[in-house]
Amino acid sequence: MLNFIVLLILAILGVSALRVHKHQGIGLALCWSMIAVEGVLQHSSTFFVQYASLTNYYIGFVALAGAISLLVKEGYGRKVLPTQLLLYTLLLVLAAVSTQWSPDTKSSIAILKSSVPFIVTFVFVAPFCSSNDKHFNTAVEFSVFYGGVVIVGMLLCEFGQRGITIGYRGGRTVESNPLAIASYAGVVCICCLFSIYSHKKTKWLLWLKIGIAALAVLTIFKSGSRGQLFALAVALLLWLPLTVKFAVNRSAITAIVIIAFIGFLGGIFFVDQNPNRWRLSGIQSAQRGRIDMALDAINVYADGDLFNWILGVGSSASYKIFGIYPHNVPVEILLEEGLAGLFLFIPIAFVSGRQGYRILADRSISFQSRVNIGVLMALFTFFGLLMFKQGSMLGSTPFFGTAVCIGWIAQLHSPGKQP
Questions:
Q1: Contacts of 166 (CB under 8 A, 6+ apart)
Q2: Taking each helix axis from N to C terminus, what angle separates 397-413 and 133-156, rounded to the nearest 10 degrees?
Q3: Is residue 419 part of a domain?
Q4: pTM beyond 0.90, yes or no
Q5: pLDDT (tens digit, 9 = 90+) per residue, 84-123?
Q6: Residue 406: left if φ>0, alpha if ψ -120 to 50, beta else—which one?
Q7: Per UniProt, which keywords does this protein have (predicted)?
Q8: How many domains does the chain have?
Q9: Does 144 map to a domain?
């Protein structure tokens, strides 16, 4: 069964390259799936382990082809770069310059360079592929069905302690990133539940989308990713009812109850398989660990001089100071890029939230457009919450990319009124 799913994934990837020039939103959808589908392919064949970056580069080039075709087709003269993209670019420039006063300049530059392909793909290229409602809707619908195939593939794979088994090294199992698996499952779940309300109801399609969403929730449980489960619950409970109320004047209770019930039953099964991961004591211990790392970073920042307070101690300096990043992106930005970095980061979140809610509440805008912005706001909340427990600023491209997507869509509905 897994071999069939892998062949289907490869076929979809191949067809996507041929269709992205007409359906550019495919580029964004593929980028969302990048790390997750890489794990499935690496589990199925050592070829994808040997050429570990092949899937990433392929998806990146497909997204680039989509962006270029959209640029050629629609032109760029009338477009203004979203506020979020400008602010993020300034934040990147600050991070790049700050490597010069980092405790380990060579290491900081190396980390920055290794992040560039993902930054360009996720923040600059992929969002442009969905810079209007039509193309973003393509991304959502593609993520529902292609994502469903990938989710089934992940569930059929052999899991190690938490991630998909992709090989063995020195007698130890090598696993894919469980957080990436769970994050993509969260994206698919959000796309499924919101897309239920963006089209006329067809019963079989309704239940198919609910079923895929339920499998996505089970995938999160199987990966043991507690933070992703919490972030998904908050994002759905906050934005799904609001979107349904504003956009289609209906209730979202049915979909939420069904997913909660299926998630509960699946949770019982997977929690029983890995009880230590889901014990309250384990969750509290992990929380204390995250809080301690954040407090340590704040203490280092407070002990710095005026220069460090304003411009930080240098990009990726946390690795030299603590041996690891603080697992809290806002705190990391304060430490490494100082108040200057934080004053660039906060407006990105504020502008995105302001634009998203305004579009959602504007009844003069089509319900389809408002459902789309609901998807983006749910994703923005999902990735935003995850930044308080995992990842670094340079690695938080899904959050910043989603913010840029909101900026592109906002341009369509507020010409000349960018905040």
A1: 39, 42, 43, 49, 174, 175, 176
A2: 150
A3: no
A4: yes
A5: 999 999 999 999 999 999 999 999 999 999 999 999 999 9
A6: alpha
A7: Membrane, Transmembrane, Transmembrane helix
A8: 1
A9: yes
